[in-house]
Design goal:
Number of strands: 2
Protein name: Maltose/maltodextrin transport system permease protein
CATH superfamily of the largest domain: MetI-like
Keywords: Cell membrane, Membrane, Sugar transport, Transmembrane, Transmembrane helix, Transport
Largest sheet: 2 strands, antiparallel
Function: Part of the ABC transporter complex MalEFGK involved in maltose/maltodextrin import. Probably responsible for the translocation of the substrate across the membrane.
CATH class of the largest domain: Mainly Alpha
Pfam family, one: BPD_transp_1
InterPro entries: MetI-like, MetI-like_sf
Strand content: under 5%
Helix content: 55-70%
CATH architecture of the largest domain: Orthogonal Bundle
Order of helices and strands: HHHHHEEHHHHHHHHHHHHHHH
Mean pLDDT: 89
């Protein structure tokens, strides 16, 4: 006879879950799982002790979260208010006050810890309900040793990954959340803690950047060039790399390994070094290219390749050519690897049918290689979208554009973001920019990878 047929009706499983929700570990204790109950109660006591030891609860007169709260209470208060009393410079130094950024970081940490405790509490409730339901159905109780072996067998990957996930939560998620929250504040050089308090401004920064004013004109202008740059830089490097790989793999080319080694040289040199070299070569005042054109009579005067505000596309074309020089060996290597996987029987059959070399490339080589490299094209587009090095070290965003705010004609979003933060201290606008970059890049990546069916078998 099972336990629920003996005497009075048994307590429902949900009551044990409610007990664990009200008092951590109580449901486990009622289920006679003493070790789990004591462990959960110990975690709860540690959280209470942390709050009590970091707060001022001995004297509750005139209680406020700012003056009496501990790790959790003051953390949440600081995250919500970002402080109420700025510091002031006195004869003795800075007075006691609030630092908005420190309060925000502490608040994020407190919320993350509370979320971990909440996740543990949810697990405890579900565990208490499952254990009680199993006892009502079978009348069996699982000992600590059996439970530990069961968890080790069924949840071993999660046990191994749990410390890493917790570490990632504070090392990776914390900076990301902080960067997102800054977008909803007025944090900048004009509002700089600790002498000033940062305030929440809601969506005002988004409205300013996406509006019809100077900020909006700069954002959409830079965004348009960023997309153009990413598309053209990806397309040109892929086409040129594909062509070089096909030509070198031709049976008519002698010493193919030598040619591949030569073509890989631009890839072997650090991109920053190459960009600085090209910047010197295309220097309008002292560069050898401008001097050569003047000496040969091609141009009557030196050409300001990278700094002429009247011809911004001149600098943009130079940037695309430098990007082509630096990027085509990557696709050449990828396409060369893909070509080795194409069966020679395909080309043999095509030659028997009378297909020309160009037709073989178009109808056999290109579709197979494109299918194999499509996800990498998407990743290359994303890399070019955020290709800080080539643009910044080659042109530094120039030439100057009088219609833009803190941006030049060749600036892409990531270089503009760099200027907004390090050069001008506009952290709030820069944070909005980072969110918008993530939305654009993330949306395009997901859409493209789904169309290419890169994860069809995942």
């Amino acid at each position: 006879m099972t336990p629920h047929h003996r005497g009075a009706s048994p307590t429902a499983p949900w009551a044990f879950g409610l007990a664990s929700a009200l008092v951590p570990g109580l449901g486990q204790v009622l289920n006679r799982e003493w070790a789990k109950g004591v462990g959960l109660a110990g975690v709860a006591l540690l959280a209470v002790a942390l709050e009590a030891s970091t707060g001022h609860y001995a004297n509750l007169g005139g209680y406020t979260p700012r003056t009496h709260g501990g790790f959790f209470i003051r953390g949440i208060w600081g995250l919500v208010t970002l402080g109420t009393q700025p510091r002031a410079m006195t004869v003795a130094g800075l007075s006691a006050g609030d630092h908005s950024i420190v309060l925000m970081v502490n608040g994020i940490i407190a919320v993350l810890v509370l979320l971990l405790l909440l996740a543990l509490s949810v697990w405890a409730v579900r565990d208490a309900v499952r254990t009680r339901r199993r006892f009502l159905e079978t009348g069996e109780r699982i000992g600590v040793g059996s439970w530990a072996r069961d968890v080790r067998q069924k949840s071993f990957p999660y046990l191994v990954l749990a410390p890493t996930l917790v570490l990632l939560l504070f090392v990776t998620a914390l900076p990301v959340i902080f960067g997102i929250l800054i977008a909803f504040t007025d944090y900048s050089d004009d509002t700089l803690p600790p002498l000033q308090l940062v305030e929440w401004v809601g969506l005002a920064n988004f409205g300013q950047l996406l509006g019809a004013g100077a900020w909006g004109a700069t954002f959409f202008g830079v965004l348009g060039w960023t997309i153009t740059w990413a598309v053209l830089a990806t397309a040109t490097t892929y086409v040129f790399g594909f062509a070089q790989a096909v030509l070198v793999s031709s049976r008519r080319v002698r010493f193919p390994r030598l040619w591949r080694s030569i073509f890989f040289l631009p890839w072997a040199v650090p991109a920053m070094i190459s960009a600085l070299v090209f910047r010197s070569m295309f220097n309008g005042q002292f560069g050898p290219i401008s001097q050569f054109l003047v000496d040969t009579g091609v141009t009557p005067e030196r050409v300001m390749w990278l700094t002429d505000p009247a011809n911004p596309w001149l600098a943009r074309i130079i940037a695309l050519l430098v990007g082509l020089w630096l990027g085509f060996p990557y696709f050449m290597a990828l396409v060369s690897g893909a070509l080795t996987n194409i069966s020679p029987s395909y080309f043999e059959a095509a030659r028997i049918e009378g297909a020309s070399a160009a037709q073989q490339v178009r109808y056999i080589t290109l579709p197979i290689v494109l299918r194999a490299t499509a996800p990498l094209i998407v990743l290359s587009f994303v890399a070019n979208f955020n290709n800080f090095g080539v643009i910044y070290f080659l042109t530094q965003g120039g030439p100057a554009n009088p219609d833009y705010r803190y941006a030049g004609s060749t600036d892409i979003l990531i270089t503009w973001l760099y200027k907004l933060t390090l050069d001008n201290g506009l952290y709030d606008i820069a944070s909005v920019m980072s969110i918008l970059i993530f939305v654009v890049v993330g949306s395009f990546s997901v859409w493209s990878l789904r169309r290419s069916k890169a994860f069809a078998d995942a």
